[in-house]
Amino acid sequence: MSTIAASASIHAMAVVEDGAVVGENVKIGPFCHVGPKVALGDNVELLAHAVVAGKTTIGKGCRIFPMAVIGGDPQSVHHGGEETTLTIGDNCTFREGVTVNTGTADFGGQTIVGNDNLFLANSHIAHDCRVGNNVIMSNNVMLAGHVTIEDRVILGGGCAVHQFTRVGRQAFVGGLSAVSYDVIPYGMLNGNPGLLSGLNVVGMTRAGVDRATIHAVRRAYKAIFEGDGSIRDNAAAIRDEYADCEQVIQILDFIAAESDRALSSPTRGQKG
């Protein structure tokens, strides 16, 4: 049996299947379809023709625009129809045509999206992705399976992120870029193949990072990517020097962490 709050507004031409949970002040427009294992938090709004399927939980205040399909089955040849999940936080906006898939059983069965995110038209979040908070995915951005996007990342229009890739906190990826390797926190990546092209200084400034800290991060970046050793060896060598700089330590921790992908750099993947 469905649990539908008395304050919810459901258009007569919408379909809310038996078993769905619909919170307070939810608005469901015409021709929407809400599946039987969906839970919609308070103040969620589904505009006309939006679809929420699968075992999907959507947090408070999210808006889902026409033709978006949230909670569809994973697009994986290994998916055998197992019940997997999608969990979305509060205050996310999914514009027209956005698709977000549930997880796959072989990798824990969960796709997880955080709070206060903006997903522009026709962007895609594949199975088993982890998306943080305050992320912006521009039009036609494509995340392959198992991608991790940390907080405050901006992904430019049409960029594609390879499976199992990590994009660190407050990184910026330019439009149409091919992200084949991990992108450090605060990094900027552009091109196809995607090359690390410096730091997201504009984003750091907008986030309130002071000039002295930005200069420190720049010095650390140069030591990491222009030093004589490998990227990981260079990063390890400067840890003590930057122990009091939170942003540099975030970069160093990111580099030191285990990953299925190599690290993006100013030269990795460059032709010639």
Beta strand %: 25-35%
**Strand order within the widest sheet?**
2-5-8-11-14-17-20-23-26-28-29
Just give the CATH class of the domain at 3-146.
Answer: Mainly Beta
Quaternary structure annotation: single chain
End-to-end Cα distance, whole Å, is 63 Å
Strand count, sense and closure of the main sheet?
Answer: 11 strands, mixed
Mean pLDDT: 97
Gyration radius, to the nearest Å?
20 Å
CATH-defined topology of the domain at 3-146: UDP N-Acetylglucosamine Acyltransferase, domain 1
What is the number of helices?
4
Quick rundown:
The chain has 272 residues and is of the alpha/beta class. The chain is built from four helices and 29 strands.
Fold blueprint:
Elements: E1 3-4, E2 9-10, E3 15-16, E4 21-22, E5 27-28, E6 33-34, E7 39-40, E8 45-46, E9 51-52, E10 55-58, E11 63-64, E12 69-72, E13 85-88, E14 93-94, E15 99-101, E16 110-113, E17 118-119, E18 124-125, E19 130-131, E20 136-137, E21 142-143, E22 148-149, E23 154-155, E24 160-161, E25 166-167, E26 172-173, E27 178-179, E28 187-190, E29 195-199, H1 201-206, H2 211-226, H3 231-237, H4 246-256
Parallel strand pairs: 1-4, 2-5, 3-6, 4-7, 5-8, 6-9, 7-10, 8-11, 9-12, 10-13, 11-14, 12-15, 13-16, 14-17, 15-18, 16-19, 17-20, 18-21, 19-22, 20-23, 21-24, 22-25, 23-26, 24-27, 26-28
Antiparallel strand pairs: 28-29
